[in-house]
Amino acid sequence: MTKKKLDWLTDRLTTRLSFKIANCLKIILLFSLTACATRNFKYQPGQIPTQHYLSATDEQYGQTVFSELGNQYQLSRNDDMINRVRDITDRLTKAAMVNQNPWQVHLFEDDRIKNASATRGNYIFIWSGMVKAAISDSELAAILAHEIAHVLAGHTAADPHEEVGRIFAGIAGIIGGQILYSRGYGPLGDLAEFLLRNTVEAIVLNPNLQIKELEADRIGLFIAADAGYDPEEAVRFWERAKNDPDLRNETFAFLSTHPSNAARLKQLHQLLPDARDRYDEAQYSLKKAEINQKKTPTSITKQKPNIRKKSLEKKSIQEELKNDY
């Protein structure tokens, strides 16, 4: 697309949408993405990619994305919510055996935006609206595991500015829909979100995103199961996103450029039996570790009477020797 066409599209959008939408779109249009050839899944069901080395370039990449998002959204100061997200992330990365490198988890404060994303450098971004949309730790783990899977599978864009454009594309659609809702246009908000999101994606986003999303779903499902989070709750989350009026009306940026709920639910249902087996194994290991931890103080307690008994015996012998003397 030529610069002249970009300027024309930006001007048209600026006159019809709010300043915030126009601002998002200007950022997106500045960072045009190159298309990649469609490919099949790289990883087999149940396989979790490994991560051996985190380069300085990767870390700088993540820091650049974080800085640009930080210019638009305020970091949350809700310590309980922040700790919840970080604790779940720690448990997931430990189960996936990718915790040898640090993971940077950042929570942005905006309840209107139900969005999560991750990028190279082990950076995870999530908005408060998404955290509140998850009604259990297992649901939130499914969301976070999906994003971790993107990083491990190498799904992120080659340039950090392109990554920002991808994130803003979904957010721009949400804001457009919300404006129409606030002005009393009802269902037209969904239509506006759909048209705006897909128009931007058609111009700037990688057409191969859906295959990556489905692959992240399948990898993330097993990461969460290995960490002891119920995989059936991941399925229930997407079922609710599809059928719950509240979730449907406040459209998910997280679903932007993603496959349809029907496609992802079909895959999750197919993988659920194997994921359930992994979850059962993880639960067994967690309970075994818990029992062993409880046994440790007990064994120490049992030793104390023996130590005391020997001390008394020694004292008694010393007193007998003293008396004999």
Keywords:
mainly alpha, 3-stranded mixed sheet, 325 residues, 3 strands
Brief digest:
The chain has 325 residues and is mainly alpha-helical.
Give the helices and strands as they follow along the chain. HHHHEEEHHHHHHHH
Strand order, sheet with most strands: 1-3-2
Structural class: mainly alpha
Question: What oligomeric state do these chains adopt?
Answer: single chain
Shape: globular
Q: Quick check: average pLDDT?
A: 75
**Strand residue content:** under 5%
Task: Provide the low-confidence segments as ranges.
Answer: 27-38, 203-207, 299-305
Largest sheet at a glance?
Answer: 3 strands, mixed
Distance, first to last CA: 107 Å
Describe this structure in words.
- This protein is mainly α and about 325 residues long.
- It is about 70% helix and about 5% strand.
- The chain has twelve helices and three strands.
- It has helices spanning about 5-15, 20-30, 55-70, 80-95, 130-135, 135-150, 160-180, 190-205, 210-225, 230-245, 245-250, 260-325; strands at about 105-110, 115-120, 125.
- It has a three-stranded mixed beta sheet, sandwiched between helices.
- Strand 2 and strand 3 form a beta hairpin.
- Helix 2 (about 20-30) runs antiparallel to helix 7, helix 4 packs across helix 6 and helix 6 (about 135-150) crosses helix 10.
- The longest helix is centred in the C-terminal third of the chain and has 64 residues, at about 260-325.
- The radius of gyration is 26 Å and the shape is globular.
- The N and C termini lie far apart (about 105 Å).
